Amino acid sequence: AQRVTQPEKLLSVFKGAPVELKCNYSYSGSPELFWYVQYSRQRLQLLLRHISRESIKGFTADLNKGETSFHLKKPFAQEEDSAMYYCALNIDSGNTGKLIFGQGTTLQVKP
Amino acid sequence: DAGVIQSPRHEVTEMGQEVTLRCKPISGHNSLFWYRQTMMRGLELLIYFNNNVPIDDSGMPEDRFSAKMPNASFSTLKIQPSEPRDSAVYFCASSLGQTNTEAFFGQGTRLTVV
After folding, report:
1. In the 8-state DSSP scheme, what is residue B97?
2. Does B53 touch chain A (CB under 8 A)?
3. Which residue, B28, B46, B59, B61, has most beta carbons within 10 Å?
4. Residues B17-40: what's their mean pLDDT?
5. Cα separation of B98 and A92, whole Å?
6. Is residue A48 a contact partner of residue A23, using CB atoms and an 8 Å limit?
């Protein structure tokens, strides 16, 4: 079955500490993965996608097909990173772009 | 472009009443999605359309839920009759589809059924 799993509902760290938000997926095809972020009182928006292999706001994510993971990492967390983070998988690649999401992880960065 | 526009932003209704949520996708986008967000289940895909045609409605929880997309610039999600367990935030999103699968989300409609 196609599925995205984010095992942590809440991750709390201190400012300056490293952050890793976990995401695992289950998909028989070639995965296209994304991280979306929802800041307080703002709409859900794309943070990064694996095909871009870019760093956005200091965050990176590497696709590991062997472990079927796409963890989101940042070496030094900032207070403004506090938000809800969703990992998403496109299960209709090259067609209509059907996205399914994990349950989300709330990141809380304490001063 | 103002992005994906949803209305109303908040809706409080009594159990048994009909509720209609509305969405205007970004102009030129071919795919439109309806999601439901709850604390317990996160973001669930309810239904999605491509070129105004419903492609997959397997996520619609029950027959009480229905969605339409009469044209490229408008979609509705209807719940009839509504129940307290339908209380959630409902998001609409659109994307270019095949050429670019990035989804752009609306602000959401917070539905409370009492």
Report:
1. B
2. no
3. B46
4. 94
5. 9
6. no
Verify whether the Cβ–Cβ distance B42 to A43 is below 8 Å. Answer: no
Tell me whether B105 touches chain A (CB under 8 Å). Answer: yes
How many CA within 13 A on the CB side of residue A30? 4
As a three-state string, the secondary structure of chain A is: CCEEECCCCEEEEECCCCEEECCEEECCCCCEEEEEEECCCCCCEEEEECCCCCCECCEEECCECCCCECCEEECCCCHHHCEEEEEEEECCCCCCCCEEECCCEEEEEEC
Give the pLDDT confidence of B75-91 residue by residue, as tens digits. Answer: 999 999 999 999 999 99
Instruction: Note whether B101 contacts A99, CB cutoff 8 Å.
Output: yes
pLDDT in tens, A26-69: 998 888 899 999 999 889 999 998 877 788 899 999 899 999 99
Q: What percent of chain A has pLDDT over 70?
A: 96
